[in-house]
Amino acid sequence: MSTTELSAADRGSLQAERGPVNMAVAGLLVFEGGDGTSVAAVRRRLAERLHLVPRYRQRLADPAFGMANPVWVDDDGFDLDWHLRHARLPEPTRDALAAYVAREMSRRLDRTRPLWELHVVEGLDPGGPGEGRAALLAKMHHALADGLAAVGIGMVLLDPTPEPLPIEPPGEGWTPQGFDRRRHLLATVATRPLARAQRLVLDGTLRALDTSARQAATDVRRATELATELARQRPQAPMTPLNAPISPNRRFALRSAGLAEVKAAGRAAGGTVNDVVLAVVTRMLARYLEAAGTDLGGRDPVALVPVSIRAEGEEGGNRISTVFVDLPVRAASLQAAVPVVSAAMGDLRASAAVRAGAVIAGAAGAVPPLVGGVMVRALGGVRAMNLVVSNVPGPQQPFYMNGSRLLEVVPAVPLNPAHQGLSVGVLSYDGGVGFGLLADARLRPGLDLVAGALDDALDEVRALSGPATS
Questions:
Q1: Are strands 404-412 and 24-31 parallel, antiparallel or unpaired?
Q2: Per DSSP, what are the bridge partners of residue 141?
Q3: How confident is the model at residue 50, as a pLDDT?
Q4: Which end of the chain is more exposed for a tag (fewer CB within 10 A), N or C?
């Protein structure tokens, strides 16, 4: 039997996917022209290297119909061609590419299959610089990998030189290992303290939890109390247009900036690259809220910023903490916002907030899933933040797909919880910084205004960085 337990945070991301919430995360990779990104070439690469990412041939299994946590098992019906998609843009523009990403981010992944897809998107910028430019949209469930793990998985498919690396295939072909639901459940009963306490009984057929209705109610109440206590750790964030109930549909916009410009702006303002990124989001949000006529009552909007706590050499799954950062939207300029953000982040790093955030991130998955779902819904009813900003450092060297150079990487971060109408994904790669804006299709004012405000904020970065980097 080949099974792997999910981490607490991974289970939490599965439980969060209900109603209009879609927990797929994606990376948009734009390549120069060439045959290296044709559907046939990409398929060959996947087939040659899929053994390096075993999770890509595993699906979720529910060993006890919601009464024990799900596990990863080998997919005995795995079909590579089902996961590889092909599309051609109706127009050769970045707006058309963004629209394609938006449609795909509106569609949930099929939980009966391995939780990933790779889309080959052709028809970008034909006849212009980089003729025949193509894109790959790598889409996976958040339970499969967080941002840093997703970068590592993506690098498996790429090469650091135009000449592909010689990677030896496995000695034997892949054979899926069967999943014995009864054996797994018996092992769970034998090894899990919580399972022993609740006496999950198997006698030939699966029974319900061997507890009274009063005990079940107590478990639910304790989970809800924990969720409430977590929410009390900070004041509720101010109400903004970003925090209306969302729909299942998404819109997407992508922007880019030079990493040298961002670094130079940081030096000029006295902050790091991360500080400048958060200041850019601050200035974007300030313009958006002003245009929307939003009165914050003198308060600052709040960003949830994931922070990686992955140990060196640790792979796969989610290893993240989270911190809440007040964004100084009343700052008169980017230069004024950077030191305020820098001071706030310094205070957070010096506190126990990162460790506490790791507890919060895992809490929803640290209990049986029937209870965990209640906790996720309880947390979803609290406006602890106004948006999510995920900033992932990528490799600062060029990579290639079968000789075609990777030019740009832009992330898409899911909207969660169900009243979170905008997320900002940021990823640096090879001297560039990609910004991905994922928004609810019903956001009002809409994503066009957000993207225009981001353009203005990036213009401030260029002006602050000086002529040497422009």
A1: antiparallel
A2: 24
A3: 85
A4: C
Q: Given CA atoms 243, 244, 247, 252 in this order, what sign does their dihedral have?
A: negative
pTM listed for this prediction: 0.83
Are 322 and 9 contacting, i.e. CB atoms less than 8 angstroms apart?
A: no
Least confident of 121-125, 291-295, 347-351: 347-351
Q: What is the 3-state secondary structure (H, E, C) of 167-227?
A: CCCCCCCCCCCCCCHHHHHHHHHHHCHHHHHHCEEEECEEEEECCCHHHHHHHHHHHHHHH
Q: Where are the beta strands (DSSP E) in 373-454?
A: 387-393, 400-401, 404-412, 422-429, 432-440
Q: Is residue 224 a contact partner of residue 374, using CB atoms and an 8 Å limit?
A: yes
Alpha carbon separation from 170 to 52, 76, 77, 364 (Å, rounded):
9, 18, 20, 38
The span from the CA of 317 to the CA of 150, in Å, is: 9
Tell me the per-residue pLDDT of 379-436, one tens digit each, with 9 for 90 and over.
556 677 899 999 888 889 999 999 999 999 999 999 988 999 999 999 999 999 999 9
State how far the Cα of 425 lies from the Cα of 428, in Å rounded to an integer.
10
Distance, in Å, from the CA atom of 318 to the CA atom of 147, rounded to the nearest integer, reads: 8
Angle between helices 334-350 and 259-269 (to 10 degrees): 80
Dist CA 64 CA 62 (whole Å)? 6
Radius of gyration from C-alpha coordinates of the chain:
23
End-to-end CA distance of the chain: 57
Q: Tell me the C-alpha distance between 90 and 322, whole Å.
A: 39
- Residue 28 near residue 155 (C-beta atoms within 8 A): no
Cis peptide upstream of residue 92 (ω within 30 degrees of 0): no
What number of other Cβ atoms are within 10 A of residue 130's Cβ?
Answer: 16
